[in-house]
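Tokens as discussed.
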């Protein structure tokens, strides 16, 4: 009986060692990223961004990174790579909130690295008084 129990304990130890060993190998090829710079500016219909992403651990360099742009109309994505990147997101609605999230694919799911909520500015139809007066003056003539 003790011999059977001892064999069972050894089998369990080996299985645990194999499981932890394979987890260790998986962890070695996993890549982590860190957002070191995330600046945005907005207008009435666009958002400019400047993003810098660095590696935290050495490993596989093919992990996906993306910028998620969410609004009440839906979600869009822009693929990113490590390093410094700039871009402009255009054709946005004015005076609308957008959630910009930098995400990486890790352990079979998307993980948030950093997020910002930005509201585009209100577009004003501004006229100068002289142009309005000139238009009405021209109409009278």
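Sequence:
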């Amino acid at each position: 009986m003790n011999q059977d129990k001892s064999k069972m304990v050894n089998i369990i130890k080996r299985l645990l060692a194999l499981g932890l060993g394979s987890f260790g190998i998986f962890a070695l090829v996993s890549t982590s990223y860190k957002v070191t710079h995330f600046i945005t500016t907005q207008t009435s219909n666009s958002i400019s961004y400047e993003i810098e992403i660095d590696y935290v651990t050495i490993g596989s360099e093919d992990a996906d990174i993306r910028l998620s742009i969410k609004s009440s109309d839906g979600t869009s994505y822009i693929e990113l790579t490590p390093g410094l990147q700039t871009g402009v997101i255009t054709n946005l609605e004015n005076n609308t909130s957008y959630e910009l999230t930098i995400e990486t694919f890790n352990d079979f799911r998307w993980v948030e690295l950093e997020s910002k909520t930005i509201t585009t500015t209100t577009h004003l139809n501004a006229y100068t008084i002289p142009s309005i007066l000139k238009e009405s003056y021209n109409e009278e003539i």
